[in-house]
Amino acid sequence: MPEPFISPDFLLTNDTARRLYHEVAAPLPIIDYHCHLSPHDLARNRQFTNLYEIWLEGDHYKWRALRSNGVSEELITGSATPREKYQAWAETMPYTWRNPLFHWSQLELSRYFGIDALLDADNAEEIWNLAGKILATPELTAHGILEKFQVEFVGTTDDPVDSLEAHASIAASGISTRVVPTYRPDKATNFSDLDTWNGWVDQLQVVGKLAIRNYDDFLTALHGRHDYFGSLGCRLTDHGLVQAPGLTGTQHELSDTFREARAGKLPSPEAAERFAGSVLREVGRWNAEKNWTMQLHLGAQRNNNTRMLQKLGRDTGFDSIGDTPQADKLARFLDSLAVTGQLPKTIIYNLNPADNYLFATMIGNFNEGPTPGKVQFGSGWWFLDQKEGIEWQLNAVSQLGLLSRFVGMTTDSRSFLSYPRHEYFRRILCNMLGQDAESGLIPQDWKTLSRYVADISYHNARKAFQFD
Fold first, then answer.
1. Cα(397)–Cα(403) distance, integer angstroms
2. Which residues contact 225 (CB under 8 A, 6 or more apart)?
């Protein structure tokens, strides 16, 4: 029989890489410090009924590929049955070669279901039925998946107004994986729809149990939620931005902006940026006090197709890489915290590969002892968490910083089927280091090579995010 496509040495092109992966990287547990898994699915230990539910239900990566293959929206987000939508994906799979979805999907079929066949229209029914039987077992419940892949830590992404009841339930469930919330206050500074913003502030009053009459009350409520997240194990905040805010405001300016926004008056772009910069600076200070890590996801251009936005809403596959200038405002924001000695541990994720060297050199401006890798250029994100994007990011970190201190991969995913992405990353990392060693670019020192792989795959993250 021919060797399966996902072979034991998949992506490993040299002997040193093969040894590094199989002996060092593969056995290590996973720390998934940033993802978008549903806390409610984890709280109820969701049992997925079929491949559609666990594979296609909310995966806008696959939705984009389906659209590119000419599949009607009825079979993507429309009223077609789950089985019909899955069939459309099976028929699309042979057209995805060289797209990372092909690698990811075949890895997922292999690692979760033991299926090595290449999915297509002809074997779709057989694979649907086999996967359905395996999904009915305890091994592939939400909890079972985390145990199967040795996931030690999961950081979900949560709004400050979330009650976090699901997290309390998870903590009481006895699950071996530590699952904690991540504080993401994007809506606190989003004035694009004032009705939505004001409704969010009203929710903050309720969960914060505080009447929010002015800007100071607003900050107090946000700080109180930051503390509450910490009581449930939070160790990171996350912020999704087109670009970092480069301005901050005076107390008078911020108070005026808050009061006017509450009255329904849209702030000017400059006032909105000063408000966002000031709030984000405060969150950074709170993080520094608690020794948490701040994550900045920069560079997405969202909701480009207004017709589909109106039809389907946000996060449905109509976002892309942006080309907004990043350097000046990012430097100003980081400096606004560093100048007072209050810059927390920080990870900056870049979405435009043209800016990789910009980001990799920016972090060097703000690194300082005694914390190794205090400011990080984050792993390949969104459109860049594929083989080439991962290699680009690793090369930039290597050439302009210290790869040995990198905190490694995270799934950044909504799907419980995404854990092979850590395997994917580890194979690419091992192949790169193995190739360099065999080419004479770095020493063939097994002890040091092993330490690099183990630290980047696991130990650096464990130390950085206080998971002990």
1. 6
2. 160, 161, 183, 204, 207, 208
Q: Which of 422, 425, 375 is nearest to 400 (CA)?
A: 375
Domains contained in the chain, number: 2
Give the list of residues 6+ apart from residue 33 with CB closer than 8 angstroms, or none.
153, 155, 235, 236, 407, 410, 461, 465
6 lies in some domain: no
Structure letter (DSSP) for residue 1: -
Domain range for 122 is 47-140
Q: What is the pLDDT of residues 33-48, one digit of tens each?
A: 999 999 999 999 999 9
The long-range contacts involving 306-314, CB below 8 angstroms and separated by at least 24 positions, are 312/77
Q: What is the pLDDT of residues 367-399, one digit of tens each?
A: 999 999 999 999 999 999 999 999 999 999 999
**Predicted confidence (pLDDT) at residue 2 exceeds the cutoff of 80:** no
How distant is the alpha carbon of residue 36 from its chain centre?
7
Banded pLDDT at 468 (limits 50, 70, 90): low
**CATH assignment at residue 56:** 1.10.2020.10
Backbone phi, then psi, for 465, in 5-degree steps? -105, 15
Q: Is 21 helix (H, G, I), strand (E, B) or coil?
A: helix
pLDDT tens, 198-240? 999 999 999 999 999 999 999 999 999 999 999 999 999 999 9
Name residue 233's amino acid: G
As given in the structure block, the two tokens for residue 334 are 């980081």
Among 306, 454, 429, 440, which residue's Cα sits nearest to residue 379?
429
How far is it, in rounded angstroms, from Cα 308 to Cα 349?
27
Residues 416 and 355 in one domain: yes
For 135, the token pair is: 């999904």
Within-domain flag for 134: yes
Q: Is residue 266 part of a domain?
A: yes
pLDDT for position 3: 83
The 10 Å Cβ neighbour count of residue 318 is 20
What tokens does 115 get? 């299926």
| Residue of 318, 368, 313, 378 lying closest to 342 (CA atoms) | 368
Burial track 297-308 (b if 16+ CB lie within 10 A, e otherwise): bbbbeebeeeeb
Q: Tell which of 78, 111, 140 closes a domain.
A: 140
Strands (DSSP E) found in 188-255 = 236-241
Q: What is the pTM of this model?
A: 0.96
At 426, the pLDDT band (50, 70, 90 cuts) reads: very high
Residue 443 is assigned to a structural domain of this protein = yes
Q: What is the pLDDT of residue 466?
A: 74
What value does the mean pLDDT of the chain take? 97
